[in-house]
Write a sequence for this structure.
């Protein structure tokens, strides 16, 4: 569909190919028209703010590609963070996919591969050709505030197997899979959206744990790797995040690991980089470090400022023409696979793909198969039971709101179950009020939501455990509650708070299913 001669491309055209920007809007508006036409923007990142329905998303992507082809002559990479589970950008009119730890809890690697295929088919049909997934971080720090169940496991071999299978499934449908967050975001207790985490492990330990999934994926042909805004002082010998480090992005990832694909930055407005530099300057440094696509997620500033700053760096010789051309050549080589773009098809023609009952049923079944009994006995619901539940909350910038108040609906339909909502981090006074309420019941069900980072939930478990009733704790996200209290007698994990998991929870409470999942983390 497109031909290029890099020698005929202007500096503006080349710089535009290195940029992947976000914007506001559900349609092609003046803002994005200006970025593509005037500033030659070559790539887009979509967020939930850009997605209202499958049909709207399909039309948006088709019109974006038409605009790029008519203005620049080169198609866009249109990317999205569609990990599944708690990081989902597409809610309506297509399949709601399970998250990483849910998939690995089924103990079936083939589920990861099939879900990757299904997601790849749907994303491709909707006009998305790059998925900023899967997460290949080994979540071996139970206090991690941003990864958790977005990781497949705390075991590097499990992460390697499942994440690579998922990636290969995606790529069967011409969707670039992007392993993140290199060299690894698993062993951190700081969210790189909010600060610069530091991982001080030496090279031998990193090879044994953090590097393993990435190397495995590279050896099996993954096409994208996303950098992390984390400082690895034993790799860099300085205080810079990996994204800005040539020793990590080029010497390690390119030269040592032999990665031939695209290096994509994490969001360049995150605190992990902008504590030290502006977004604009950080993008220049990332390009020189070896990053091919710099990602500015902002819907307004500093997108144009970033392009202008990069251009000035080229004119000043801070970014050499050789560096610029090498990045552009690699990007365009990967874009050649977009030659089969069909911008004339109708939304009606893809409905059988994106609104597919078999896809939806398989995704649901994976969540049901992941239901894990870690300790104690399955529940036998009493005639009158108390349900204390925490609603899902947006805990970091990666999360999306999932219609929090509505998700609990199926549980409220259960007869003889009194449902009460608990605050995310209940105070001592609130805990006492819940305990007083619980004294009126023989059975209490408490659903936690990242109790590992909300001490009030653990305190509530400990107080409820003192009562003489049948207490069942069910985690609906990170499965680490047993790390922080030994007072749980009956513990079940579901790994996500999503429409599918709440349907599974309802069936479990009614005694219609038995847990058969395997917990993907290690308990001491």
């Amino acid at each position: 569909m497109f031909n290029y001669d890099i020698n005929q491309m202007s500096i503006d055209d080349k710089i535009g190919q290195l940029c992947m920007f976000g914007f506001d809007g559900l349609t092609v508006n003046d803002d994005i028209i200006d970025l593509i036409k005037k500033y030659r923007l070559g790539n887009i990142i979509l967020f939930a703010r850009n997605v209202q329905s499958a049909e709207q998303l399909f039309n948006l992507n088709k019109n974006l590609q038409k605009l790029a082809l008519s203005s620049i002559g080169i198609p866009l990479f249109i990317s999205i963070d569609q990990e599944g589970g708690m990081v989902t950008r597409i809610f309506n009119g297509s399949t709601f996919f399970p998250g990483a730890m849910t998939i690995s809890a089924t103990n079936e690697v083939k589920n990861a591969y099939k879900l990757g295929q299904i997601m790849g088919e749907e994303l491709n049909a909707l006009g998305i050709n790059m998925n900023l997934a899967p997460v290949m971080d080994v979540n071996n720090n139970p206090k991690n505030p941003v990864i958790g169940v977005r990781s497949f496991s705390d075991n590097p071999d499990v992460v390697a197997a499942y994440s690579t299978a998922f990636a290969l499934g995606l790529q069967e449908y011409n969707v670039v899979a992007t392993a993140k967050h290199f060299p690894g975001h698993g062993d951190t207790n700081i969210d790189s959206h909010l600060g610069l985490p530091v991982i001080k492990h030496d090279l031998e330990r990193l090879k044994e744990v953090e590097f393993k999934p990435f190397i495995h994926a590279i050896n099996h042909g993954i096409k994208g790797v996303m950098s992390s805004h984390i400082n690895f002082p034993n790799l860099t010998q300085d205080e810079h995040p990996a994204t800005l480090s040539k020793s990590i992005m080029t010497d390690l990832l390119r030269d040592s690991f032999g990665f031939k694909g695209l290096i994509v930055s994490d969001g360049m407005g995150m605190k992990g980089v902008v504590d030290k530099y502006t977004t604009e300057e950080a993008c220049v440094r990332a390009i020189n470090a070896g990053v091919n696509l710099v990602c500015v997620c902002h819907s307004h500033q500093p997108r144009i400022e970033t392009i202008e700053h990069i251009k000035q760096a080229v004119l000043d010789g801070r970014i050499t023409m050789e560096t610029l051309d090498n990045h552009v050549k690699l990007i365009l080589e990967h874009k050649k696979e977009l030659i089969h773009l069909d911008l004339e098809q109708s939304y009606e023609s893809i409905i059988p793909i994106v609104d597919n009952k078999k896809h939806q049923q398989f995704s649901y079944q994976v969540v049901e198969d992941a239901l894990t009994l870690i300790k104690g006995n399955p529940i036998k619901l009493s005639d009158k039971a108390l349900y204390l539940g925490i609603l899902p909350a947006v805990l970091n910038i990666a999360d999306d709101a999932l219609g929090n108040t509505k998700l609990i609906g199926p549980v409220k339909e259960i007869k003889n179950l009194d449902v009460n909502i608990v605050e995310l981090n209940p105070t001592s006074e609130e805990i006492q009020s819940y305990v007083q309420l619980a004294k009126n019941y023989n059975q209490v069900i408490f659903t936690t939501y990242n109790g590992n980072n909300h001490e009030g939930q653990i305190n509530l478990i400990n107080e409820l455990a003192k009562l003489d009733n049948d207490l069942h704790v069910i985690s609906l996200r990170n499965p680490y509650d047993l790390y922080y209290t030994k007072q749980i007698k009956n513990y079940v994990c579901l790994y996500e708070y999503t429409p599918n998991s709440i349907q599974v929870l309802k069936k479990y409470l009614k005694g219609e299913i038995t847990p058969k999942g395997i917990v993907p983390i290690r308990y001491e």
